[in-house]
Amino acid sequence: MWAYIIRRLIAVPFMLFGLSALLFWLLYLRPGNAALTNFGLVSPDQTKDAVANLEKDLGLDRPAVVQYFDWAGHALTGDLGESLKNRRSISGQIGERLPNTVEIAVLTILITAAIGIPVGILSAIRPGSWLDYSLRVVTIAGISIPSFWVATLLLILPVIWWGWTPLHQNYVNFTTDPLENLRIVIWPALVLAVSSAAYVARIVRSSMLETLYSDYVRTARAKGLRERVVIIQHVFRSSLVTLLTVIGLQFGAVLGGSVIAEQIFAIPGIGLLTYQAVFNVDYTLVLGVTMVFALMFVLINLAVDILYTFVDPRIRY
Amino acid sequence: MDDRANYWTRYRNRRLSRRTFVAGSGAAAAGAAAILAGCGDDDDNGGKTATATSSSGGSPSASAAASASASASASAAAATRGGTLKLAKQQVDEGMDPGLKVVNNLDLLPSLYNRSHLYQVSTNTMLLDAATAMEQPDNTTIRFTIRDGMKFHNGDAQTAEDFAYTWTRFPTLLKEQGSQANEANWGFIDTVTAPDAKTVVVKLKAPSASAPVLMATTIFSIVNKKQAEADSKKNVQNVDAGAGAYSLDKRDATGTRVVRFKDYYKHEKPNAAFAVDSPYIDNWETSIIVDNAAAKSAFLAGNLDVYPQLGQTVSDKLEFESLKGQKNVTAKQVDTTEARFMAFDNVKFKDIKARRAILEAIDSKALIASLYAGDGLYDGPVGVGLPAFALDQKTLEGYRKFDPADAKKLWEAAGKPASKIRIQANQDPRGSSIAEFIGQQLKQNLGVDTEVLVNDTTTWVARAREPQKQWELFIVPYNFSTTPEIYNMTMMDPAAFAGVSWNFQLDQADPDVQATAKALRALVAAQSQEIDPAKRKQKLIDMQKYALDNIVPGINLPVPGHSYLVYNSRLQNVPEADWLKGLGLVNQTLWLKA
């Protein structure tokens, strides 16, 4: 298995290189640059020297290939450079904000598992019942309703009904005040968990239904095992590989969803940073953040692959 | 409770009795979710009644209006000292140097920095701040006497030398560091000297009617020379280098917080913006809230004092109506601060018949009826926000003739200069609705194919700047400014945005466009250098009529009749007429009702 892990890790830099090159090119093709966003519509006195000087200062006057490889060269040494907009260190900005995003993602996955798995199991063991139908309706609704809409309702309805808002304007880090922090991040996590829990519930249900009537389950029942043992140890366990795959993918989706959730709930995370960087054509910042997202996604998938071997001993690398 | 005490400090300091433990365990079992959802009382408005601070008298040389002063004094008598003003903004600032960055930092600059004086639009009055006198011995000289004993937040004394330094560094900041303040804001300055520690003498390149008003804007905030010189780039982007009423307490990704500066000077002679012992409010907190629904939620829950965001008003009348009846909400109708300009690509539309065809094909009355619910105004080159100089509504209406039959004839007579009219807008929701409306009108009345292009701001700016325009009409939203030159004329002056962005350059290859641009520039310069108010008004009328008669370099679109100011009822002494016209965020006589 170690050989497999090493092979996967060796592939990571190549993948990041390809991804960053593609992303840089897409940003480069876009009209305008970070220097122009500074000036707005630009009057003639600014076009004479100021825009050119700022472009030179930011290195935007160089050919695209030079700009990219200059960035990539520094990135290889762990130096992601400075934001083109506010001139602050990108590593510093990511370091400040990444824990906030990771916290929301982890909390979302925990809520997803805590809701999605029991709902899926309940639905699967009573197929065709009113409970099953009700849960299927709820899960379809959960998948269909966009997160930003759920978030907007969550912000507006309580304030109309009770004069209370879940929005906290002063973000507090987990290390500073865990309870206060949890009161802040629970809401974006709940919003993101709505669709992912619904998705997980449907996957668990269908995966369990596939095995519920198989021969080995019938044998387990015939042996006189209690129904709970049959369901949990035989039926559900066989669904774990599928479940792990889905949760791994959901983790990536949650990281992507954090862009919207952080924007709505005013969480100073990496998603909000990405949103602002894209609008400012701050390509060094966009590339830096995307590399971190991509790296996290790769590592999560690697972890999921490793976990397969624990939940299904037949899997070997 | 000290809001800086963190969880661990409180945990360590807490004494847990048996009764507390038993009660706590029961509560925890029953209501973990409720604890998470619980809404803490973070209202720290512990107000203390201030002493009455009224005193009579206006500013020595700047004519503080008696009524404004009286109103300030009356309000000061009832004012309560203390509390935290809570605001929101959408993006983190790009820096705190007032000469370099003027975007997303309006919560900081007016608090951290002082200025020689402010300008109150509603009374056309200069309100002295760091200066105790301001005089113009001749048409090209402005002399300031500055007050004694002012200190920067780091303890340095603020002297005339700091003023001279601040006001002469603009060209270098623009050229070397890409300042967001351009020559339209400071180009009138020739030299600034400090003959002694209390006197600053500004020599102008030519007489300038707008100079005193422009010198009251944020970019003229005084920075500490020593701190700026100590920086390798000679800027104060990331340090508090001001001598304003508040000093910086927090600035990070979640927002900013400024607190009362203990050594802030007294204004012995109060005016509409300053009382003797102002400011009344202790702290200002600004949170980063990107989403408008989130800002609304926070505002209605009482966690924000102004809605929607810093420096913005509610522009939708329906939303204003819905907010008006809410608990603890004050909603007022004020003069509009919105403006929108629709530029031509002046090379494609060099024939006046084509420009007139566009103008006559747009039904401005219908635009006002459908997009502003009937509450709209015609706008001209000076802008309705400056009624002393703007053309009256009847005159402007005369320039907005809707005649589709004539429009079609003119379009054909001009040789149909475009087979398709592309209208470029940005993500301003109202601007894109206007673009759609105009697109429909042109399609219907000129029989031409139209396309509305809506892009993010960066792409939109790049589209404006490209020499080969990928659009025929370009819509720009902007807000009120205090002088004609930096208000609607910024969009129209060839020496400002019109030159590069609308192909209306003074050295444009097309001789007709060049001649029109030169004529308009000369008229702009003439009014700018006219000191006599009556003569200036006439020159402004001449300038406007030239632009309107020639329909260059675009069309001032109708504006909403009103904007809507919405704030928490605990906020007192709000200068409604001037809130979005420069005085809202620097008015130190604002106070919070406990």
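qc> The radius of gyration of chain A is 24 Å.
qc> done
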